[in-house]
């Protein structure tokens, strides 16, 4: 079981794992062993609540494909287990991020004092610029 939040848990079989060769420096070990972990999760075929599915599909994230799959590749470590754990943590944080609803912003008016200070500052800047203007000589 993969725990996303207090209410939401996913079955292990819903995640598909692929282990591929990492790119970059690492020498002979890296060329022989498949240490990079790639997690694939199909949003539409999952047991996630409908609200989570809609929010994930609407989210602008490079890890979410147009076909509705989350693909997370991790190759930070030379260890397959460490890469798998990192990819799983990234997946959990991505799914949990759509569960939070942002507070609705309440529009406020500027106070009378702030409006007065703003106008005074504008007048002061205008007066300073007016003093810089050279008067033409006759």
UniProtKB/TrEMBL annotation:
The keyword Nuclease does not apply. Residues 7-132 form the Prokaryotic-type class I peptide chain release factors domain. One of its GO terms (molecular function) is hydrolase activity. InterPro entries: Pep_chain_release_fac_I (IPR000352), Pep_chain_release_fac_I_sf (IPR045853). Keywords: Hydrolase. Residues 103-138 are annotated as: Disordered. Belongs to the prokaryotic/mitochondrial release factor family. This is Aminoacyl-tRNA hydrolase. It comes from Shewanella algidipiscicola.
